[in-house]
Amino acid sequence: MTTATSRPCVFALGLAAAWGLLAAGPARAQSGKADAPKAEGPSFARDVAPILVANCVGCHSPGRPGANRGKLDMTSFDKFIKGGNDGPAAEPGKPEESHLVLRVKGEETPRMPQGGNDVRLGAPAIAAMEAWIKAGAKLDAGLNPKAPFKSYAASLDDVAKANTAKLSPEERDAKVKEAGLERWKKANPELKPEIETSEHYALFSTLPKDRATRLIKSMESSLGAIRRALGAEMTNWPEKVGLYVFPERKDYVEFVRTVKQREVDEHEDGDADLKTTQPYVVVYSPPEAATESAATAAAPRRKGRSRRPEPAEAGRRSTTSLLTENVTRGAAAAAGAPRWLAEGLGGVVALEGRSGPAQKLRMDALDAFRRGWPTKATEVLAGGGDNVSPDEFHGVSFGLVECLTSPMFRPVFPQFLKEISKQGGAKIDDVVKDVYGVDRGEFLTQTGEWIASAYGGDQ
Ligand code: HEC
Questions:
Q1: Same domain assignment for residues 342 and 268
Q2: What is the pLDDT of residue 64?
Q3: Beta strands 270-273 and 241-246, pairing class
Q4: For residue 183, how far is its CA from the centre of ligand 1 (angstroms)?
Q5: Which of 5, 69, 109, 149 to mutate to test the pocket of ligand 1 (most atoms within 8 A of CB)?
Q6: Ligand 1 centroid, distance to 44 Cα (angstroms)
Q7: Does residue 349 contact residue 325 with C-beta atoms inside 8 Å?
Q8: Atom 20 in ligand 1: which residue has the minimum CA distance?
Q9: Residue ranges making up the domain that contains 412
Q10: Residue 433: what pLDDT?
Q11: In which order are the strands placed within the sheet that holds 194-197?
Q12: Ligand 1: which residues within 6 Å by Cβ?
């Protein structure tokens, strides 16, 4: 029962975040839509409609059973402005007498949006409604009053991006730092981070200044490799990416818990969300000196589980490599790439050709080949599952991507990446047919042969 009411709450919070950005200056954002209004003052399409779409329209639409509440119909502007049982929702020039405002402020009950008790519009959203009513409560010139709000409402992402775009570089940096510190504090309020910024990144870590400077420099230079692998489109972030490096696993766990609202897996040491308004990458990377004890203490079952001495344990991952892997993975995932593809790309871009961790992944892929490549690869392409161990999943993903970016397959890889991402990973058979001109069976045969010969020396 509680899940049903917690949904609008999430919207309200998202709104508050997006509108928090708006508060920074006069709203002159323009949505990306072709017929977007270019009004200077308050705009219904830009300032109000996105709020109604995200928080209200679902209940205030006739046609759906039980969804024409208070007879206030929000499917188009002309119906909305006519009002409901109590008359017009907005009194032009008089926000203090408008049901719309009175309801969202709770001065008229029931308060809107109706739902869980903790559902509230943020103050900036309410202020935007008031400003629009004060200015006359009109629809922007040139827009069709019979069209649904959605056809012209800027998405909240558009609003946030447009508002970021008009900030000065210093103001943007200040926002990134502020959001970053806020998140860091959730993971561990006792630990104070140092902040370093560069053209594309803002690094939050406990590293000594000189090491932090070196780290962010090497992240800038690894961006070239990421762009070559993913294309410029997927790496064109509107804001600096926050990079968080935690020296202790518990802080990493807490970060993912509070920021991403997810429990971490036993072995993972990095995560990313490059789709959110303040994009970030977070890793757990113990200081080099403490590596041995920290690594074994943090993952006690790792050694017991392995089938052979792990080269990965010998050559610990550098922080740059770990961050690069997660930036790549996060960028691919944000563009819609399926998990195996994002994962494999992260590994291929971040790991040195002959490094221990890369060799380990290759051996895992070869093991999977020997256990039956078509079955294993099919399961990985479908997203994993109970029959695929984490080692197999990583290995096969890495192997597939190394194969698809090898000279034989490379020429069409950008096309494959783009098409499969557009589908969000679905319809893989169609994409394979389209790009490689073969069916899935043949695709698996060829990739399997490549794995056997490249990793197994053809025996
Ligand atoms: C969960 C469903 C739901 C959501 C979400 C919702 N409403 Fe309502 N709304 C109702 C119901 C039910 C009524 C009739 C309540 C009553 O007055 O008895 C109502 C009535 C109203 C009225 C009074 C209409 C009239 O003339 O009687 C206004 C104004 C209103 N809502 C605005 C909003 C706004 C603005 C939002 C979004 C911020 C919103 N509502 C979100 C269910 C909802």
A1: no
A2: 63
A3: unpaired
A4: 34
A5: 69
A6: 19
A7: yes
A8: 70
A9: 336-459
A10: 93
A11: 194-197, 201-205, 241-246, 280-284, 270-273
A12: 8, 55-56, 58-60, 69-70, 72, 83-86, 89, 99-100, 103-104, 110, 112-115, 121
Nearest C-alpha to atom 11 of ligand 1 is from which residue?
69
CA of 278 to the centre of ligand 1 (A): 32
CA pair distance 176, 167, nearest whole angstrom: 12
Per-residue model confidence as pLDDT tens digits over 283-329: 999 986 444 333 333 344 444 343 343 334 445 789 999 999 999 99
- Could you identify the atom of ligand 1 that is nearest to the CA of residue 113? 41
Domain stops at, among 103, 132, 165? 165
Name the pairing type of β-strands 270-273 and 194-197.
unpaired
pLDDT for the residue 65: 58
Same domain, 136 and 178: no
Instruction: Output the pTM of the full model.
Output: 0.62
Q: Which of 5, 59, 81, 118 gets mutated to test ligand 1 (max ligand atoms within 8 A of its CB)?
A: 59
Q: What is the per-residue pLDDT for 33?
A: 40
Residue of minimum CA distance from atom 23 in ligand 1? 70
With a cut of 50, which residues of the chain have pLDDT below it?
A: 1-39, 289-314, 459
Domain count across the chain: 3
Q: Which of 307, 334, 361 is the last residue of a domain?
A: 334
Residues 86 and 179 in one domain: no
- Pocket probe for ligand 1: among 11, 44, 48, 60, the residue whose CB has the most ligand atoms within 8 Å is 60
